[in-house]
Design a protein that fits this description.
heterodimer, A: eight-stranded antiparallel sheet, rod-shaped
Chain lengths: 191, 191
């Protein structure tokens, strides 16, 4: 019986290489684990948002003249307006443009000694190191556009100052209940 | 010495049997083979999910992540021929191609939840948790164990797209991916 067991063992041993070959046979690459990759893509366009005005959107200077002289007051001032939550998602430029304060009802050329226009300096600060500024009295306004090299979000303060009478400080302003100018701040995304 | 005696005994016993030969005799040949454990995932119906614009173009959420509907990709006819398999997911958040650390208030990552259903009771899911600078974008999860060999369509759904801190997204192209793996369940691997 011991001998018989030995013979059987030998027979099994001979068949073992056959089994080994059967295990190699399945197709190359198949395994008990498989994986697949799904890519996900999207984009965010360069975009700017001007924010929301903190006030009513008006810079009200009140009475423009010194009532004793009829000339432009030298102490004109008004709190600035703030554009809250402005942002650009890429590099950007900020540009300020402004139109002088003009009499809205007295629209004809003023008589000698009078003016119907007040100039000022408009500035937008908070976006760039150097505020963008525009003086309505000046033909060239190199500082009107400033660049920023990164995406940014923050508040932009719009202020006006440096008032002057068109034609010279000696001129008096024509009487008008409405002098009006416009300051425009533009954010532009730069790719 | 003992071996010689043994052989002699076998011969003595065998001879009478030969003398009594029968007309029919049968022998047995074993046929053996193996079936290797394999899992195969079906080809994804879409290997690339394009979410388009990720940020809202207008309205109160301008610049922040838009409402992006869930996206589903199917891996049809996926199978494992053995009991005890599970689906694992490795999801990587969408991050901007520009790796620059974003300015305060901005994020360069969009997180989401990847969910695989159709394989076992309960889903496999992973929710990415990238920081606003895009670090730590990958999350992993493993679903319940399928106790039987299984053939099924696996649905992969991407949903709940968010930006870290709901911050404004910097502009650029964004990409991420989801790796779905089907294989033997690992004890304690369920989420």
């Amino acid at each position: 019986m011991i001998r018989a067991s030995a013979l059987i063992a030998a027979t099994l041993a001979l068949s073992a290489p056959g089994l080994a070959m059967a295990q190699i046979a399945p197709e190359v690459g198949a395994s008990d684990t498989d994986s697949a990759t799904v890519g996900v893509i999207g984009n965010v366009p360069a975009q700017c948002y001007g924010g929301t005005l903190s006030g009513d959107g008006s810079l009200d200077l009140g009475v423009l003249i010194d009532l004793t002289t009829g000339r432009l007051r030298t102490d004109l001032a008004t709190p600035g307006e703030v554009l809250v939550g402005s942002f650009c998602t890429s590099r950007s430029t900020i540009t300020v443009n402004a139109t002088p304060l003009e009499a809205q009802n007295f629209t004809v050329a003023p008589p000698a000694g009078f003016s119907r226009r007040v100039h000022y300096l408009a500035s937008a600060s908070g976006w760039t190191t150097t505020p963008a500024s525009y003086n309505t009295a000046t033909a060239a306004n190199a500082a009107a556009t400033q660049s920023r090299d990164s995406a940014f979000t923050g508040d932009i303060t719009v202020a006006i100052s440096d008032f002057s009478t068109d034609g010279g400080e000696t001129l008096r302003l024509v009487g008008d209940e409405s002098y009006r100018g416009v300051v425009t701040v533009t954010l532009t995304a730069v790719n | 010495m003992n071996c010689k005696y043994g052989l002699a005994l076998i011969a003595l016993v065998a001879l009478p049997a030969t003398a009594a030969a029968q007309s029919t005799e049968s022998g047995t040949v074993d046929v053996v083979g193996t079936v290797r454990s394999i899992c195969i995932l079906g080809d994804p119906t879409s290997a690339l999910v394009d979410l388009g614009q990720l940020s809202a173009a207008s309205g109160p959420r301008t610049g922040r992540v838009a409402v992006i509907p869930p996206q589903t990709v199917t891996l049809p006819g996926s199978f494992c021929n053995f009991a005890g398999s599970a689906v694992s997911i490795s999801a990587t958040a969408l991050t901007a191609a520009d790796a620059t650390n974003p300015q305060a208030g901005f994020a360069r990552a969009v997180n989401y939840t990847a969910t695989a259903t159709g394989w076992a009771a309960g889903a496999s899911l992973a929710t990415t948790g990238a920081a606003r600078d895009g670090t730590g974008p990958t999350a992993e999860g493993t679903g319940a164990t399928q106790p039987l060999p299984q053939v099924a369509d696996i649905s992969l759904t991407l949903s709940s797209f968010t930006a870290p801190g709901d911050q404004i997204l910097v502009s650029g192209n964004y990409s991420g991916n989801v790796i779905v793996t089907l294989g033997p369940a690992i004890a304690g691997g369920e989420n």
